[in-house]
Amino acid sequence: MSKSKSFVKYLKKINTSTNNLLEKNLNKLKLTYILNLVRSNKIFLSIVAVLILLLSYLSIPNFYKQNNIILKLKNELNNKFNLNLKFSDELRYNLFPTPHFTSNDTILIFQEEKISEIKKIKIYFSLENLFSFKNLKIKEVEIEKANFELNKSNYDFFIKLLDNNYQNCFFTINDSNIFYRNIQNEVLFINKILKMKYSFDSNESKNILDSENEIFNLPFSLKVHNDKTHKNFFSKINISLLRLQAENSLSYKDDLKYGNIDIISQNLNSTLEYEFNKKNFEFNYFDRLANQKFLYNGKLNFSPFYSTIEGSSDELDLSYLFDKSAIIAQLLKAEIFNNKNINLNLKINANKILNFNNFTNILINSKIHEGLIDIDGTAFEWKNYVKFKLFNSLIYNKNGELYLDGASTINIINNNEVFKFLLTPKNHRKKIKQIDLNYSYNFDQKTISLNDIRVDGKYNERVNKKLNNISIKNDDLQNKIYFKKLLNDALKTYSG
φ, ψ for residue 229 (rounded to 5)? Predict the structure, then answer.
């Protein structure tokens, strides 16, 4: 019994010690937890308090009077960016993503004329001292979905924006269009502005214009800066699809301004040197490679507009005209030359045509006069065996497609060599001296229609039917086979 009682006492003693130990540690844990909780709450409450104070501070512009803020921003935009804006909608204040004012359907005035309707404009400002309405400073202006109407009187709007001070601010234009119009208020071309940004380059200490654009379905990038201290204007255009890059440097220190444009493409490295004043523009355009392939020079008078351009080239690339997406073709479609005030004479001599080396001694003789583009007097040869000369030939736009209509005289110098090339059977080799015909070429459809064909002065109806409709193939080899067969069929018909 005594042993049993002793064992029970021992268990009670252990239990008491254990309870005391647990209680002591739990008390310590409670105290630590509470202290940590208090500390955490202080941090949390501090964060909440800071956020509330910050949001309250950022919300101060909500309490500005609408008339006052409109007047303030209009003055700031005019003084800082030379932007004369008419807000047709109330300014709305937005906190996110950063505090700014927005307005819809804003009108832009330049030289006392409306030049743009802006769908949306965002005005970001400095967050310093929002308590002081007078100290409100604009940091960035962002224009979206604007249509700019430009012409010869206000074409320099975007260039003049470079004169502003962008050291502490930005000016951007996104998803907008430039409509350039002629004297008759007709749209000559549309330039799509994907993204345009004016900023200050601290490394070069110059204002910079960076722009991503699209014209005639052709994307291009543009970089411009104007060094007013040294009176030098620089621009760089990059057309990636054409692998074409052009850099222009212009000095405007004197009345007679001069500059040069370096043009680099896949197979081209050339320079355009020019000088101009208020009355005229003169230039020299040449290849910078060791073996010069071309040299052009010209003069343009501004009032009235008249120009003469002459040049010589080793090899002439007609793809600039005949390709469906060629720049010259697109300009002709846009009827940019269809102006009675434009008079231009162009005369180019070339030894051969790119990818068509059998055509030699090329003379391109073109005139633009009162909106009409003619190439009368244009001549070329084929292997010195056949001579071609064009008459009454006009290039024009019809229903959105480009056409070349005219007449041609073909003199055959060496019948035997022509028959050998065409592999014409001997029984069809009837001697021909001269062919006269009318033609119509569709640049877009790549089709040729020949009519009123006269061989040595005689009209042959069956020959005319054979050559009435010709389709240009996509492959050069296919074209060679196609034309040989077509001409041999015509010779067979002519020989009877």
Answer: -65, -50
Q: pLDDT of the chain along its 496 residues, tens only?
A: 444 444 444 444 544 554 554 455 545 545 555 555 545 566 666 666 666 665 655 566 665 666 777 778 888 889 888 899 998 767 888 777 787 888 899 999 998 899 999 999 998 887 776 656 667 788 899 999 999 999 888 988 998 999 888 888 899 999 999 999 877 788 888 999 999 999 998 887 888 999 999 998 889 999 998 887 888 899 999 998 888 899 999 999 888 999 999 999 877 789 999 999 988 999 999 888 766 778 899 998 877 778 899 999 888 877 766 666 666 776 677 666 776 777 889 999 999 888 888 899 999 998 887 667 889 999 999 999 999 999 999 988 888 788 899 999 999 999 999 999 999 999 999 999 999 999 999 988 889 999 999 999 999 899 999 888 888 877 777 888 888 999 999 999 988 7
Distance CA 359, CA 364 (A): 13
SS3 267: coil
Could you give the CA distance from residue 199 to residue 451 in angstroms, rounded to a whole number?
A: 60
Cβ-proximal residues to 359 (8 Å cutoff; 6+ apart), any chain: 352, 353, 380, 381, 382
* Rounded Cα distance, 110 and 77, in Å: 13
- How many other C-beta atoms lie within 10 A of the C-beta of residue 425? 12
Q: In the block, which residue shows the tokens 């230039």?
A: 283
Phi, psi for residue 317 in degrees, rounded to 5:
-100, 105
- For residue 162, the SS3 value is helix
Tell me, rounded to whole angstroms, the distance of Cα 7 from its chain centroid: 101
Neighbour count for residue 305 (Cβ, 10 Å): 12
Long-range contacts of range 356-364, CB-CB < 8 Å, 24 or more positions apart? 356/318, 358/382, 358/383, 360/384, 362/316, 364/316
CB contact at 8 A, 430 and 407: no
Structure-block tokens of residue 41 = 């709450």
Cβ atoms of residues 354 and 315 within 8 Å: yes
CA atoms within 13 Å, Cβ hemisphere of 426 = 0
Total-model pTM: 0.60
CB-side neighbour CA atoms (13 Å) of 245: 10
